Amino acid sequence: MPTALLWFRRDLRLSDHPALVAAVEAAGADGAVVPVFVVDPRLWEPSGRPRRQFLRDCLADLREQTGGALVVRSGDPARVVPDLVRETGAESVHVSFDAGVYGRARDTAVERALGDVPLVRTGSPYGVTPGRLTKNDGTPFKVYSPFARAWRARGIHSPAPRPDAVPWAEGLRSEDLPPAQDLDGTQLPPAGEAAAHDAWALFREQRLAGYADTRNLPGTAGTSRLSPHLKYGTLHPRTLVAEAEPLAEDHGEAVERFVGELIWRDFYADVLWHRPDTAHAAFNPDMQRMRYDTGPVAEEHFAAWAEGRTGYPIVDAGMRQLHGEAWVHNRVRMIVASFLTKDLHVDWWRGAVYFHDHLVDGDIASNHHGWQWVAGTGTDPSPYYRVFNPTRQGQQFDPDGTYVRRWVPELRDVPDRYVHEPWTMPGGPPDGYPAPIVDHAEERQVALARYQAVRDA
């Protein structure tokens, strides 16, 4: 009886799953498909508790969807996968292509350990697999806009059909799911494929029409909040594009901007594919010379930023949302990143790592390159002279203070005109809320001088 092994990674779903289709075809009418997830210590241990819990919940859903057939094993995949192949007699191992730095090395090691049993890569977590799009001269894109034009011109595949029936192998030994995590009050979104489709339907039917106007307003429910599902593949961007594009006739700008965000995700994955060093180093090597602060004062500033007590309400609200929901609105991610790097002069990488540790959607390509964009060190960067003014950003994108009041209860009774600059109130900010730890205007000049020094070097 032909047996195919389907190794789930960042594709924890059964619909629109090309590797699943390939595994079913390999098994044939009389064969069986072994569904497996390997809890890899090199990925599990560094993950923050929100991502661990969300992954656990996704696996629980996947086990239920497979009728209890999902096999969970722990250990080095280069040992676990070949062992399971020998145990089941599998003739092929099927995966979605992993473009990550560690994933590529891991898959090479697994492939070597499998010997004559092929590791078949079908599909990827992206609309366009990293490395597929290049400029006319064959070199990678370094700027988003031309990448986006090439992405749209190329197009992406239609969603893969879901097999009518999957002959899941039964009776195999499986470990328990990974342990539940103590989230200390952090509220995570529902996990799993059904939850992903519910979240997408809610956004598509109720919010997409206004997306172009509301996506930058953190006090409104204007974004899809699908990033955790894209991170773990409970929903594929192919599905989103296929179901969003028919709405473009009535909501053209909204659909274009939404698809544009999916392209940003593909772009950053492509950058990491070509430049794996950018997971920890500036894309622009000149910016490695940028001077950041260290020492006791810098550590105090970093702690104040992380704990949401900088005295700048929009910054503090964002950091408290990070701890409350393991997620932050995209506009606010940019604001808090700019504040850390350009007002507090702390290395972007420290902020990126802190976010990655606490986000439920933590993804190195999107997270780290987003930080580099704000810090002015990355590909297609925000201009070095652009320093987000946290007060003006709050006034522009949270004008009535809805977002700030939700996450900073000390300011709930502050009048609107003071909610983004409570230090200007008669008598200063309310009890329990700090005065600004730095003067934005002064620190902006420091940041500009340091950027200019790099440019002049």
UniProtKB/TrEMBL annotation:
Keywords: Chromophore, FAD, Flavoprotein, Lyase
Keyword Translocase: no
GO MF annotations, alphabetized: deoxyribodipyrimidine photo-lyase activity; DNA binding; FAD binding
Cofactor(s) required, per the database record: FAD
PROSITE patterns in alphabetical order: DNA_PHOTOLYASES_1_1, PHR_CRY_ALPHA_BETA
Free-text comment on the cofactor: Binds 1 FAD per subunit.
Residue stretches making up the Photolyase/cryptochrome alpha/beta domain: 2-130
GO biological process: nucleobase-containing compound metabolic process; response to light stimulus; response to stress
Coiled-coil segments on the chain, per record: none
Keyword Lyase: yes
Binding residues annotated for FAD, in chain numbering: 211, 223-227, 258, 261-268, 361-363
Family of the protein in this entry: Belongs to the DNA photolyase family.
The protein's name: Deoxyribodipyrimidine photo-lyase type I
Phylogenetic lineage: Bacteria, Bacillati, Actinomycetota, Actinomycetes, Geodermatophilales
